[in-house]
Structure of Hercynylcysteine sulfoxide lyase:
Amino acid sequence: MTVPFGREFREKYFAFEDGVVELNHGSYGAAPTQVIEAQMEHIKQKHAFPNRYLRYELFDISKKCRQAISTTVDADYHDLVFTPNATTAVNAVLRSHPWQMGDKIAYLTTIYGACMNTLKFLEEQQDVRLIPVEIDVNASPAENEAALRAVLHEHPDTKLAFLDTVSSMPAIVLPWENMVKICRDRGVLSFVDGAHGVGLLPISLRQARPDYFTSNIHKWMYGTTSCAVLYVDPSRQRQVASLPISAIYVSPSQELSPEESKKVLGNSFAYVATADYSAMQTTIELLKFREEVCGGDQAILDYQNNLAKKASELVCKELNTTDIDNSGTPMAMFTVRFPLQLDPKLHLDFIDFAHDKFANKYKTFIPLATYNDELFARFSASIYLDLEDFKSGVWAVKQVLKDWEVAAKHPKELLEPKLDAMPLGLPC
Ligand SMILES: Cc1ncc(COP(=O)(O)O)c(C=O)c1O
């Protein structure tokens, strides 16, 4: 590695707008310029001869990219496909499942909003029953596992459990591998939402053996938008149709040889209507960037985890607060209790106010959320940040708190966003 991770790395390999300090990699990710440039080349390749690209080249490209990413998640490439994002993967699987009226789906209460909406859709349209597993973000992993066990004990006819590797807001590492085992031992299918998975935590699907797993590539792998990977256990593959169902559809009842069956999932997701496949196609360049420029997956994980630990200490000290971290598993995102005593009825107003100020006035973003009436802030320690950037983040939080105080007295004036640049590396 020629340039160390942090600000110098950001300036050399990423293309952020001047003055922007992206402290929220967790929501949308950000890709290095050379990967975005590779993506542009792939778009040109498609437009140079669309019929050859979409009818022939795409299938070979998809296979090579699935083979490439299979090492990262430790799975057979036949069991992996690409989707534009984790949400599409979740929808493809859950909306393909042959639900019967009254079938039960257990879900963790930390579930991501879009996934919860998909479950609500199934509840309304397919008459499934949703069973919450109350996750206490202050509890130990063993206590949260016990909560899942208790729900499955109470509802032994549960068909599927919807789990997270790392929840979105607040961000905590869930004991997903143990939870998958708990489900398997009881004959309950498991879907693991690993949107924050690959690149954030070491993942071995061969060891964990979930029925379904998805992970975004455009978040913690630093891939370009939009790209996610979906894993489907071989015994479930004939049931899962792409979203939308497109030109390549093989009915689950059609008899195929084992060899033919093995190819159905890969082929049906390789071409899903006329669409942009360029992000998926950058997998090879992305893995090369991680290996050759970053020094490999372990070097990335070490930097992210180490920075998150130091940054969390700094943020907690400067904002006089505490973080939530009961998992004992290091990761790049940390969540702190937001240092503002506020009536929970005003939490959403404050979140709207603060988000607007972060993005439009202070050129940064620190996502806030409320969970069980507590207000939290999440930070992401990515390879293009260093400790100085978190000092800027602390400064921005303090500014927003001052703005909120003033807004209470002069609401109109403060609702006008002003695009002041955030001073970098200020001592807080
Ligand atoms: C836990 C979790 N699941 C799913 C998603 C959805 O990801 P995407 O918008 O890439 O589909 C997110 C996005 O942040 C997430 O945090």
Q: What stands out?
A: Residues 50-73 form the longest helix (24 residues). DSSP finds 16 helices and eleven strands in the chain. The pocket of pyridoxal-5'-phosphate is lined by residues 27, 85-87, 112, 114-115, 164, 168, 193, 195-196, 216 (CB under 6 Å). The longest strand covers residues 158-164.
